[in-house]
Structure formats: C-alpha cells, structure tokens
Amino acid sequence: MSANLTSNKLKAAQDLQEFGYCLLECPVSKSEFTQLRKRLLDVAKKEREDGGAFLYDGGNQRVFSLLNKGEEFERSVRDPVVLELMEEVLGFNFLLSSTHANIAGPGGASMNIHADQTFARPPWPPYALVANSMWMLDDFTEDNGATRLVPGSHLLCRQPDYDRGEGDARTIAVHAPAGSVMIFDGRLWHQTGANVTDRPRHGILNYYCRGYVRQQQNFFAGLKPEVVERADERMRRLLGFENYFALGLADGLE
Ligand SMILES: O=C(O)CCC(=O)C(=O)O
Q1: Which residue's alpha carbon is at the smallest distance from atom 10 of ligand 1?
Q2: Which Pfam families does the UniProt record give (predicted)?
Q3: Among 50, 188, 200, 244, which residue carries the largest CB count within 10 Å?
C-alpha cells in the first residue's frame, strides 16, 4: 500500500497520516517550474565549475542555502498548497528548517535508511517534530535514484535499528513525474536511491519543523541581508523572525 499522485489536499492529508508521505501533482505553473529547475541547474553547475561544490557518495551533489541563491527558491518554500499540508503535520506557526538541493548523480550510491528527526533522542512523541518536502525536478524513477521509503514506518515512532537489520528494511522507490512534490513525515524511514543511469536526478528539499524545534539552518547568521529585507510577514514567520508563544522574543513581550 502506498500513496498515489493527487491534487486533492484531503486525499494528500490522508496519505500523510496513513503512509507517512503524500505525492502532490505539480502545484505551480509550468513556467514557474521551468524557472525553478533552470535556476537550480545553473547554480549547481556554477558551484562545480568554481570548485566549491559539495560532492559526495561517488557522484552526488548537495547545493546548500538556496534562499541566498535565487528568488525562485523563496517562492517554492512558501507554496500555499505545500504549507497547508505542512501545517496538518506540524501545527500552527511551524518554521522553515532548511532548504537545499540533493542531486543524485550517475554512479551515486544510495544513502543509509534514516528518519529526518534522528536529532531527537528516544522516545519520540506520537507525532512528527519535522517534515520534509521533495520537489522533483526530473522524473523520479527506480533507476535514477528516486527517494526510497518504507510506507507506514512513521507509525513506529523510532529510527531504524541497524543492529536488528533494519538498515536493510524493504523500501519502495517513489516514482513520479517531474514537477511532483512529495511531502513526508519526519519519522518516515527513507533514503536516496542509487542512480544507475547516465543522467542526474535533481531534487529540492524544503524542510520544516515545529515552532519550538531548532532549525537546521541558522537563517539569522546565514541569510543575505537582501533576502531578509524583502521578506514579508509570512516569510519572516517561516524563517523564525517572529515569536512562537514566549519563544523567539526579541525584547521581552514587545
Ligand atoms: O534525495 C533524496 O531522495 C532523499 C534525501 C534525504 O533523505 C536526506 O537528505 O536526508
């Protein structure tokens, strides 16, 4: 049993609860998607040419801090459909935790099976502390490194136990056309697949957390001033510039 591609938010929310992930049909226009993809490919290429690219696992590349690298990425982190579903998982006033790209390159190895909230010591509460979204910039297929996951594993509420062989748990590859967005619960066991094709698989991971969980990326220290200056209230809230109850106060209760 696994989630199906849908544009129906109710169905997506049900899949998230039951399987720990859902698959959304492309939530933006074709031209917006084309611009997003082009920007990521341009930035990734430039980082490789400049010698500053983060390369790993025999052909894979990460491109970090996307908000500093193009306004297209700002639009993707605040996509209203994705945010609505994130709120279902993470509750109100959740935060953006980080935004980066993972490119599974030809020959790239698969990643260890893990859950994204491994930073939290057990026992985990019976709900997600974080949730991720994968913007698929290419068709995701069995062979090109599509994300692999164990449907329903979020309900175990713990990370895989490698000593019990769960590092080899049975996974399925998430196949979907370019433009699809997968949203997944921070407790779900998953991994990048191995890319055995001759073409890269590009994906953007916009990662979110509950309003009281520490963000993966330190936006206060790392964001370019112009990104902060143009942020409206919604964006400031996502970045953590607004308070969550009595957390994140700049000057007492003012
Ligand atoms: O690239 C993927 O398919 C998944 C990446 C991932 O699991 C991670 O970065 O933690």
Answers
A1: 116
A2: PhyH
A3: 188
Atom of ligand 1 nearest to the CA of 62: 9
DSSP letter (8 states) at residue 202: E
Mutation test of ligand 1: which of 103, 150, 205, 217 has the most ligand atoms closer than 8 Å to its C-beta?
Answer: 205
Instruction: Specify which residues 206 forms β-bridges with.
Output: 99, 133
Q: Going by DSSP bridges, is the β-strand pair 21-24/5-6 parallel, antiparallel, or unpaired? A: parallel
In a domain, 225, yes or no: yes
Chain centre distance of CA 15: 17
Closest CA to 98 of 13, 242, 214, 226: 214
- Closest residue CA from atom 5 of ligand 1: 192
pLDDT of residue 1: 83
Out of 133, 147, 201, give the residue to mutate to test ligand 1, the one with the largest number of ligand atoms within 8 Å of its CB.
147
State how many domains the chain has.
Answer: 1
Give residue ranges with CB within 6 A of ligand 1.
102, 111, 116, 147, 190-192, 203, 205
In a domain, 134, yes or no: yes
Output the CA 101–ligand 1 centroid distance in Å.
9
**Domain with 95 in it:** 5-239
Q: Name the residue of 110, 137, 191 whose CB sits within 8 Å of the most ligand 1 atoms, as the mutation to test its pocket.
A: 191
- Report pLDDT digits (tens) over 73-95: 999 999 999 999 999 999 999 99
The pTM of this model reads 0.98
Residue 143 belongs to some domain of the structure: yes
- Whole-angstrom distance, CA of residue 87 vs CA of residue 182: 15
Q: Does residue 96 lie in a domain region? A: yes
What confidence tens digit (pLDDT) does each residue in 182-211 have?
999 999 999 999 999 999 999 999 999 999
